[in-house]
Amino acid sequence: MSTDFVPISFSRNSAEPAVKLAKAGDVFTLTMTAAPDNRFNPTFVKSINDALDVVEDWALKSHRGEPCALITTSDSDKFYSNGLDIVYLFQSSDTWFVADQFLKLLKRMLLFPVITVAAVNGHAFAGGLLFALCHDYRILRADKGLLSLNEIDLPSSLLPGMAWIPRAKLPPTTVHPLIFGPKRYGGQAAADAGLVDAIAPADQLLTVANKWAEKGAPKVAHAGPIVSELKKDMYADVVAKLEIRTEVDVRKKMQAKM
Amino acid sequence: MADKTTDFVPLSFPRDSAKPVMTLSKAGHVFTLTMTSPPDNRFNPTFVQSMNEALDIVEDWALKSHRGEPCALITTSSNDKFYSNGLDVMYLFKNPDTWFISDQYLQLLKRVLLFPVITVASLNGHTFAGGLLFALCHDYRILRADKGLLSLNEIDLPSSLHPGMAWIARAKLPPTTVHPLIFEPKRYGGQAAVDAGLVDAIAPADQLLAVAHKWANHGAPKVARAGPIVSELKLGTYADVVEKLDIRMEIDVRKFMKPKM
What is this structure's pTM? Predict the structure, then answer.
């Protein structure tokens, strides 16, 4: 696996980076490293965006015309991502974080100019599952790791864009139990329900993810910015709803949980 | 077994009617609304009004008088042959009630789609046309294993589908089911109905209500914990269906249908 790219971590120069970006062959791997469970807060979102900027620049500018794809994964054995950083939202009065940073990141992933593969090596809950659903493909660890949209139990409603990602990406027979059960899916059941494209044993997860990524890497080489345009055409309704700006004060809606 | 204790005296609707079209009872956390309108539980103003009154009671219980307690709703029929055969076309033929569909029937569909507690349709008989749309607006559907077909037979009446009616099928069913359902029209029963995504499970006739209770009991804690957020989540998930159900259209069935007994 040759590489022409020196790994970087984000935030740059941080002693505890939230995200690492590496490259092997045509495939970038973005590893989420924000202990304990990769929750979305401003630092995490900025770090992911900085990493995505590097990949986007590579694929569309500095190495335009070359194959390129992106895997996301986590360095935590237990979690891919547990969703929004509720404690942060409770402690700050950052009522526009969800609309202006989190949803915007979901939209960016949904429309990303290269093929994206989520190597879901642990639990993907709530906002973490929505993030994974915004990828082109999802590979799930076969033995461990559950997928769930547990907003109804927090309890929390879903912003229009958040509700529309499952509506657009999942079979109706999965959408309803996922949101209202809330049903948790793992292993083959997750593949049968259309939540993931394949499962793989833990020690083969990244290899399988790389296989899917390598298969998609030529798309941007050939199509350039049209990959993103196609994603926008296919998911125009999701994009429109993700762009709806809603102020969200979690203190009004939820009890803080650690 | 479902908890049989009850803190609710059964009611029938219309209240004080010698021939009620609906009864409401409760066992444990679960209300059961039984449609009792012979011969086949068709939707007309009395039926819709009775259902709304029963739903008012459940809604008040769950969100006000017993807020914070588990609560769920099963709907079923007292009729061995039909869950519901849809709109009361005879009524619509005899009366110039051209706003009934938009203002009463579709608004009832919307109400059930957004209902604040988890709802389970216990399909103990045929569920056709407007009756199937009503069932599809529930959270879950359990179908009798040995008898009872599901069908959207508008194309054979012939009748078009109001935008909201078509969109319930689009939003709730796999595309590979939607098209045959509407255009053959394909009839689904038993395991085929489960495989097609029309119902969540099937059960032998003598176990149907017990299975429906199991699903209802599983969903009952949702409103206890989330209160009005259950309804908000339903609105967020099915915003497109709601928008179409709210489209008001004057519909005169005499212009395009022949009455059938």
Answer: 0.93
